[in-house]
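dumping this here so i dont lose it
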């Protein structure tokens, strides 16, 4: 156990299974301290989130922006807003660093890995969890068996236990079931028998059945929607050949159409809301795929027809730039906190210079302000102005005469 895990376990009494989720949430909250309001974009996202809370239909929203525009932070904000609704279960997914695996299956397994089953069940009694699982259609029996074992292991669910008691009652088979669902183990014949399954998670159709069962489970627990905030989506394309890239496009289309093809009624599952962030290059790549498929057919056009909204993240205006400059000049990198006062005051022509130099790109603003701030503190300048900033950035190679 590393030092951070030990701290979280001792301070917050967290079990190992929830430490990663807790750590990720704390990290997101710290990043959100950098949020600069994008009123128009946020209003559009909140409207979509309100639809997710009602659970009326599935939805795909794209967030497109070049490097440094704030796509990841925007997804963090979306998750933060979604967490205000008790009818939505939101998760943040990033595919950066995803290793090569079976195309399509890797996407759904990443969803499973980011569902905190302990948190889902912490306020529920055994009887409530048992009922939520039993109400899943018998056509999805294998997935029901896995969920049953995740929560109950080999113990009987016929008596009511507190959440803390249920955690202690879990057996090794609970862990086995969870690791299997996440695709982290390949069970042998004996383990598959103990898990109550016949098939392995080796095809998209089988994994989709498990996803449908989990959506039904969520619905039975009172959630109307599963919200997926997806970062670095186009990174998946780098893991496969061009001919295989369409697998992910076809998968998104089929997930949007759930539960088509699975024996479960539309009203009995939680809906899926996708917020997908991608670069402008990634969007251009999808359009190129569409051109390639124009003569031979393919999934890209049907997916595009299912995209309900698309927002292009623009650069900051001068007021937003000033707000971000103030944040950066209050951030004490040594203490990793925002101070109440500016570490060094700045002039209005400093704002003009940074705005012109960065064209309002958020990442460029924070990096350049950081360089100027460090130099200003080292040289003990009373104020940051355009002249000083220009000299520092020239010396750092950030500014060309």
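and the seq i came up w/
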């Amino acid at each position: 156990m590393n030092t951070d895990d030990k701290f979280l376990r001792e301070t917050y009494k967290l079990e190992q299974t929830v430490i990663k989720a807790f750590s990720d949430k704390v990290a997101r909250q710290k990043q959100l301290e950098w949020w600069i309001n994008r009123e128009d974009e946020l209003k559009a996202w909140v409207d979509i989130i309100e639809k997710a809370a009602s659970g009326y239909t599935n939805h795909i929203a794209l967030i497109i922006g070049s490097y440094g525009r704030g796509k990841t932070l925007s997804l963090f904000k979306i998750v933060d807003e979604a967490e205000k609704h008790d009818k939505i279960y939101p998760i943040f997914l990033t595919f950066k660093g995803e290793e090569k695996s079976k195309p399509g299956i890797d996407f759904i397994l990443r969803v499973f890995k980011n569902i905190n089953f302990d948190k889902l069940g912490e306020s529920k009694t055994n009887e409530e969890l048992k009922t939520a699982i039993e109400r899943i259609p018998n056509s999805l029996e294998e997935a029901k068996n896995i969920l049953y074992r995740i929560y109950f292991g080999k113990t009987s669910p016929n008596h009511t236990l507190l959440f803390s008691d249920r955690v202690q009652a879990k057996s090794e088979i609970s862990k086995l079931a969870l690791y299997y669902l996440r695709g982290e183990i390949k069970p042998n014949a004996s383990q598959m028998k103990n898990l109550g399954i016949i098939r392995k998670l080796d095809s998209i159709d089988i994994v989709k059945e498990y996803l449908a069962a989990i959506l039904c489970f969520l619905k039975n627990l009172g959630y109307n929607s599963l919200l997926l905030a997806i970062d670095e989506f186009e990174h998946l394309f780098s893991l496969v050949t061009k001919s295989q890239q369409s697998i992910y496009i076809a998968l998104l289309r089929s997930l949007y159409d759930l539960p088509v093809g699975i024996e479960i009624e539309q009203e009995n599952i939680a809906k899926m809301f996708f917020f997908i962030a991608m670069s402008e290059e990634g969007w251009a790549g999808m359009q190129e795929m569409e051109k390639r498929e124009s003569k031979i057919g393919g999934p890209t056009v049907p997916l595009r027809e299912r995209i309900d909204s698309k927002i292009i993240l623009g650069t900051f205006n001068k007021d937003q730039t000033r707000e971000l400059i103030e944040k950066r000049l209050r951030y004490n990198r040594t203490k990793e906190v925002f101070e109440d006062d500016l570490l060094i005051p700045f002039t209005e022509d400093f704002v003009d210079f940074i705005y012109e130099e960065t064209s309002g790109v958020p990442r460029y603003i924070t990096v350049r302000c950081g360089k100027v701030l460090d130099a200003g503190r080292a040289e003990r300048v009373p104020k940051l102005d355009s002249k000083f900033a220009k000299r520092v950035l020239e010396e750092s190679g950030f500014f060309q005469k």
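The longest helix spans residues 362-379.
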